[in-house]
Amino acid sequence: MEMKNKTWNFQKLLKQKNSVIPFVGLVLAIILFQVTSGGRLLSQRNSIVLLNEVFNVIIGASGVLFLMSQGNLDFSMGAIVGMAGAVAANASNTNMAMTLPVALLIGIICGAINGIISAGFGVPSFIATLGMSFVLKGITVMMLNAGSIGIPFELSSFDTVPIRFTTMILVLMITYIIFTYTKLGKQSCAVGSQSTVAKQAGVNVFWVRMFGFMISGLACGLIGFFSIIRGCTASTTTGSGFEIDVLNAMMVGGMAITGGWNSKFRYVIIGSLLMAVVSDGLTLWGIDLFTQQLIKGCIFIIAVALSFDRKNVAVIK
């Protein structure tokens, strides 16, 4: 009993300080990598690399915010990015104007399928999206013949710092307004807190959850578009590991895996900046991609352990 009380008190302390700890972690990470990299982290030359890291994660985090506030997870994000990129790449070779709309549409469709499986058939979100990720990766490999496909070089003109920065700001503004000031944001938190109570209060839990999956898919479609125009190629590795970066960002930013009323928009910004600094810092240290994935996996396990609210374990869908 005493051990149980100590564990609960520790979790309570974490909740009380969840707005401070992530920010302190961000500051410490910046100082650590800035010093150990010889000042290269915040150098002008590295600023574009850092922006690209932030851009991908922060848009993905903005999309999955609604889903995680409901107590749901999306392990298919990377696969959706790859699928959206592959289909959009094929479309671009027919009509370049269709590249972005196709990428967004594929993202929404994949998100809707996740929603139907999870919200409609009652399959836990992590199982539904994990299974969906294998399906989508398989389809992507078949579409690309286990290789890659090029896109018109003209599309690379959209891969500029001003366009990326403007897109990022617009996405943040739109998701902030929806999450903070509309019913969808409040209802998402209500579903995460206790879906049964929310349903009794008149919330259409099915459509709220569907919205969460679809907005997550939409964000992945957008990242799929920017991923292929960056290198003018869609490959079987596009989007690889994206979901781990995003989920890590949300949880180290302060988001509880169980969601609920404690979900805040600031977790998106702080967590995304922190993970971007960590990813870029590890690269500056000369650590290879596979080792980075190992380190991020360890961060994910630790973040889940710290953010897992055992009192609300039934809330996780």
Short description:
The protein has helices spanning 2-16, 21-36, 44-69, 77-92, 99-120, 125-143, 161-181, 183-200, 205-231, 242-252, 266-284, 289-307; strands at 148-150, 233-235. The protein is mostly helical and 317 residues long. The radius of gyration is 19 Å and the shape is globular.
Spell out the blueprint of helices and strands.
Elements: H1 2-16, H2 21-36, H3 44-69, H4 77-92, H5 99-120, H6 125-143, E1 148-150, H7 161-181, H8 183-200, H9 205-231, E2 233-235, H10 242-252, H11 266-284, H12 289-307
Antiparallel strand pairs: 1-2
Helix pairs in contact: 2-11, 3-7, 3-8, 3-9, 3-10, 3-11, 4-5, 4-6, 4-9, 5-6, 5-9, 7-8, 8-9, 10-11, 10-12
Write up what this structure looks like.
By secondary structure, the chain is mainly alpha-helical. The chain has twelve helices and two strands. It has helices spanning 2-16, 21-36, 44-69, 77-92, 99-120, 125-143, 161-181, 183-200, 205-231, 242-252, 266-284, 289-307, and strands spanning 148-150, 233-235. The protein has a two-stranded antiparallel sheet. Helix 3 packs parallel to helix 8, helix 4 (77-92) packs antiparallel against helix 5 (99-120) and helix 8 packs antiparallel against helix 9. The chain is globular, with a radius of gyration of 19 Å. The two termini are 28 Å apart. The mean pLDDT is 87.
